[in-house]
Design a protein that fits this description.
46% of the residues lie in helices and 12% in strands. The protein is an alpha/beta fold. The relative contact order is 0.16.
Length: 411
């Protein structure tokens, strides 16, 4: 790719990304590029970690071991970071190391903003293929996963025991629906989840969509219709509340925390809150239609090395990334972030904790949203999907008609 064509692509992608986000975007200043005097810049989406946190200490430790004079780290909100990274690449002052949400990788890669692992010599051979797939585009790999979160079903042990429901009996959609029906007959509520008209809604629907055998390239398949019909029927039968139409993952959790619901679909990021519940809880994998764990979407970030004018910086950047993603550091980092590690050996260590075992199994069955070579096509597909879910759950269209319209909108 020539310098001129790369700049044009960066400009085009930056405009698209900025137009898709409400609110002000951060522009890059001349002082935001690679630091002088050997300082290496790291941008991440963890603004919650202060300068004295273990995360920042690890960054500095890795910088020292890589031979960098210093590491200058800045944490941004996820949306701001995406826009910032695109604009910095366009202006030629990208950070040395960039940590971004995994669906963003394909956007940056298509814009020509990231080096490939062939270019930067990062070793990804130990990474789980299903997690690595989120950072791949057109046969190239553009970073290393630092960890993953995903979805499972939390359940209220006390409520299920009182209803006579054994969570181990839930293996597929019919057995889950039967459990919800039993709970409702006992005067309690079945399941809560997030079906809001945003990426959160698509994220929560995907395990059921993929668990039916559907593919994102065919939103109106019979399998896809069966998944949306499952959710629609739950609302019609009172097994799930109408509030799911507007629920975020946070408000859905708040409903579960009342103790009135048997189940809640939510993620690893709620583990700390789960320990504060006023009742005993457990977790099971989201079942696929015919049994077994459904593929759930992966959340989590990739560590990547942006394109630099000074290519001699890549060697040190590679050492920093390799340090951040080695097995011992991954365990520490992923414990801090409530993530499951992307390396099987570290996952095995995490699975030794009974409370993490289900999450490790869920991540092993998970898949990236931009996988299957969807790349930058995914955002449009996702919007069509959440629009269909909203339409069907609100009664505006049948599941079949809603998904037929969704498929047409992706063309």
């Amino acid at each position: 790719m020539t310098g001129l064509s790369r700049r044009r692509r960066l400009a085009a992608v930056a405009v698209i990304a900025l137009a898709a986000v409400t609110g002000s975007a951060c522009s890059s200043s001349s002082g935001d590029g690679p630091g002088d005097g050997g300082a290496y810049l790291v941008w991440d989406p963890y603004p919650q970690f202060a300068a004295d946190s273990e995360w920042v200490a690890l960054l500095k430790k890795c910088g020292t071991s890589a031979g960098a004079a210093s590491v200058e780290r800045t944490g941004y909100d996820t949306t701001d970071l995406t826009n910032k990274a695109l604009l910095a690449a366009q202006q030629g002052n990208s950070p040395d190391v960039l940590i971004v949400d995994n669906p963003v990788i394909s956007t940056l890669a298509e814009a020509g903003a990231l080096t490939t692992t062939d270019d930067n010599k990062l070793d990804v051979s130990a990474m789980a293929p299903n997690l690595l797939g989120a950072g791949q585009s057109a046969g190239k790999t553009y970073g290393v996963p630092i960890g993953a979160n995903t979805l499972a079903l939390y359940y209220n042990k006390d409520l299920l025991a009182a209803a006579g429901v054994d969570p181990a009996s839930i293996k597929d959609w019919p057995s889950l629906t039967a459990a919800l029906t039993t709970v409702k007959a006992k005067g309690k509520k079945g399941i809560t989840f997030s079906a809001i008209g945003t990426e959160e809604g698509s994220f929560q629907f995907l395990p059921w969509f993929w668990g039916s055998g559907a593919q994102l390239t065919s939103l109106d398949s019979p399998q896809a219709v069966s998944a949306l019909t499952l959710w629609t029927d739950w609302l019609k039968q009172g097994l799930a509340p109408n509030s799911v139409i507007n629920n975020t993952q946070t408000t859905s959790w708040q409903e579960f925390a009342t103790g009135d619901f048997a189940f809640a679909e939510n993620g690893t990021w709620q583990l700390a809150n789960a320990e504060k519940l006023g009742f005993s809880y457990g977790t099971i994998a989201i079942p696929a239609s015919a049994g077994g764990p459904a593929p759930a979407p992966t959340g989590g970030e990739f560590v990547s090395i942006p394109v630099q004018k000074k290519t001699d910086r890549y060697e040190t950047s590679q050492k920093i990334v390799a340090c951040l993603t080695n097995a011992d550091n991954l365990l520490t980092t992923d414990t801090t972030l409530s993530y499951v590690a992307p390396v099987a050996a570290v996952q095995d260590r995490q699975a030794a904790d009974p409370k993490l075992k289900v999450w490790v199994e869920a991540v092993r069955a998970a898949k990236g949203r931009t996988g299957d070579n969807l790349g930058t096509k995914y955002p449009k597909i996702s919007e069509s999907l959440w629009t269909a879910v909203q339409s069907a759950l609100s009664g505006g269209k049948t599941p079949k008609d809603a998904l037929t319209a969704a498929q047409a909108a992706t063309r």
